[in-house]
Amino acid sequence: MGDLVARTGRHQQRYEDGYRLVAGCVPYRYTLADDTCNGNTKQRLEVLMITSQSGPRLVFPKGGWENDETVVEAARREALEEAGVRGEIKGKLGSWEFRSKSHRDECSPEGLCKADMFAMHVTEQLNSWPEQDARERKWLAISTALEQCRYDWMREVLNVCVSRYSVPPSSNSDVPISPNCSSELADLEQS
């Protein structure tokens, strides 16, 4: 594997109506869990959160959407750079607006951001990734992840993801994408 390097700087950032455009994802996986009530094992959903660069609080991978990439490519890139994971984007969870204290600049002096967030089924977790020295990653049960969400918009993103992907795929199949979501994702891949 070649050396992976995180993109830096804001010269290619996208802005719209005073908002910095951001792309991110909720990386998820299914793990086996013992069902002690009846002795069976079942799959449960876990999500990956990473420490913020500005402190120990946990966030989902996200960052600036740049001019030379689609929003889906930006979400994939941020997951790789910040969390060291690759996977399949399963669908757009929605768009959320928030104010960033750390990302104020001449194009968005108030730090306004609009984030397009996606669900990513993780297929590969790297041992080495661009921001590994600046961030820790943690796989969490949903209840713990909800407690770690510092902002309402993050809890909303997680709740949408859980509502769509909490049921694991059936044997040898993937999590189904609704017809609307499939065509929407194809459109996003080309924008």
TrEMBL record:
Entry keyword set: Hydrolase, Magnesium, Metal-binding
GO molecular-function terms, A-Z: metal ion binding; pyrophosphatase activity
Domain Nudix hydrolase: start-end pairs: 18-162
Chain segments carrying region Disordered: 168-191
Cofactor: Mg(2+)
Biased composition (Polar residues): 168-185
GO terms for cellular component: cytoplasm; nucleus
Keyword Metal-binding among record annotations: yes
Transmembrane segment boundaries: none
Pfam families assigned: NUDIX (PF00293)
Name of the protein: Nudix hydrolase domain-containing protein
The species this protein was found in: Picea sitchensis
Organismal lineage: Eukaryota, Viridiplantae, Streptophyta, Embryophyta, Tracheophyta
